[in-house]
Fold this protein.
Amino acid sequence: MTDQPHAELDLRGVICPYNFVKTKLKLEAMEQGQVLSVLLDDGDPIRNVPRSVSNEGHTVVSQDRIEGSYRVLIRRREDE
């Protein structure tokens, strides 16, 4: 399985909880095991979104700081 993103969301400037809702909806539209790249602001977004998607059963593959924001790679969960 590759960690190359299949899709990307730029959610910089989007406030909580909308950034999580948009991330969740995008993940639900993707195939199982695909990777979503999400750009998030520092502060609440980077604290809350990775935790919330993990609680939903998805996997946070990586979290990298890029020019004042963060790039988070999330692998969509495998449904039973």
Notes: Helices lie at 18-29, 44-55. The longest strand covers residues 59-66. The mean pLDDT is 95. The longest helix spans residues 18-29.
